[in-house]
Amino acid sequence: MSDEKITPAASVGESKTQSVNGNNTGRRGFFKWLTLGWIAFGAATGGFFTVMIRFLFPNVLFEPPQTFKIGFPENFARNAVDLRYKKSYNVWVVRDEESIFALSTVCTHLGCTPNWLQTEEKFKCPCHGSGFRMTGINFEGPAPRPLERYKVSISNDGQILVDKTKSFKWEKGEWENPESFLTV
Amino acid sequence: MIDTFKSVIDALSTPTVSFTLLSIFTPLVFPPTDWFDKINRKFGIWRLWTKPGLYTGMGFITFFFVVGYFDPNFNITLTKPDNFPIILMIYSMFFFLWLGMSKAYVNDERIDKGLKPVEYNDPDDKVLVWPDLVYIEFISLILFMVFLIVWSILVAAPLEEPANPATTPNPSKAPWYFLGLQEMLVYFDPWLAGIVFPMFIIFGMMAIPYMDTNPKGDGYYSFKERRIGIFIFMYGWLILWLFLIVIGTFFRGPNWNFFGPFEYWDPHKVVPLNNVNLSEYFWVKMLNTGLPSNIMLRESLGFITVFAYMFMFPIFLAKTWFKDLFAKIGPVRYTSLMLFGLSMFSLPIKMYLRWFFNLKYIIAIPEWFFNI
Fold this sequence. Notes:
The complex is a heterodimer.
Chain A (H helix, E strand, L loop, with lengths): L26 H29 L11 E3 L10 E3 L3 H4 L1 E5 L3 E6 L10 E3 L4 E3 L6 E2 L5 E3 L8 E6 L5 E9 L13 E2 L1
Antiparallel strand pairs in A: 1-10, 2-3, 3-4, 4-9, 4-11, 5-6, 6-7, 7-8, 9-10
Chain B lengths: L1 H11 L2 H15 L4 H10 L7 H19 L2 H7 L5 H29 L16 H26 L24 H9 L2 H22 L15 H25 L26 H9 L8 H4 L1 H20 L3 H35 L6 E2 L4 E2 L1
Antiparallel strand pairs in B: 1-2
């Protein structure tokens, strides 16, 4: 043992001892294993990404419907902001002297949810101090544009139907659109 | 006595007063020119960087917090676990500022006498990175780790109830280190205060060594040899960053209104804040006509103002007061210095315009999400 010269198996000139044909790990065999390896790798990553993409489409979506009924126009008091649908649908229902409209609860500055202050008669954002009047018009703080309004209509059974897929922006003159409010 | 102190502090902490006072004091504490230096010497402000100055400063900060701790209103904000880092920040800010400035003043005196800075005293007295520096860093790392663990055991994490879209916390505050940015967002549109300015802060600080090529003060503390640079940096860091964090933490209450630190956080505090855009001031209040329907015509005055401030003003400065500077550093460095510098000073300008004229936006195009 001690006389034997130890050489690394992979060193040059050692190919004679490890015959090419004598073993399965020859050139051809190498490619066989390589192909197999790539197929296994591809299958594993493919499966992984399939599961990932499947994960993006949940079985159940706890999202409120974009179109919903909020009851009859008589249920809303004049010159008042209705907070009942704020939590479930992110909508304030406002009734002024002649109309009912649905305001978005997303501040137009950076997207916080403002609070309705009854005594001050304004929506006030707790994040950067933007203030909006009952109509949704911005008047204080950094908010650059008024709150958005959603489409409101009367459904067949006489209830108010709010459609959040269609919004109306004041700065584009869309509040003139008869779909953006209900005359009562 | 204490009540007088509290009402004085409350009155002083009104942002219009406190921000103005601090903006006046910064050039006196870090005098950028001989004129300011003379006032600094006359009133003995430099004594802040002596040992008695350190004790006085630390004593005042501690007195302020102790009074605050026993005040029913300030106690609420002061003892919030979120605000603990800010108390640490105020102490460490003052201590390290004092450390650097006191060493700089010692060196300045030596340089005046024709001596070399303290750090040059013994050129053979070198400290090796390994093991000397790494060893110190390792020890401080362990100590800091111990501190963090003790802190996390002693103080429970300020977790709140699960998020609920129907009830937004009032006031809603960002993590303490972002409160300066949140304060900036009050005066600017999100794309400016949330994206452009933070990027300018990072790129501007990266650009400092390219714009300020003054080789003096390299490897030793010195104030006199780079006083303009130190002044500009200190104004940006102390006033426009740290003080805005302090405002956001202690002076902003419900509905994001201003409150003095000892004031009761009344959620119904009424503050008249009817903000008006420059275009409305110009067309409606000055010319008594309606806003023009053409957006570019409507905002033309705002565009001219911003263009004049960002592009004409630097050219004007380069031909007058900054003539020597322009000749010395050349057009490329001058342009970037002006870009970052004027953007930085646009923040206090916009704050004052908001406070005194209720000016909301200079350029207001909500149609295109473009407001400045």
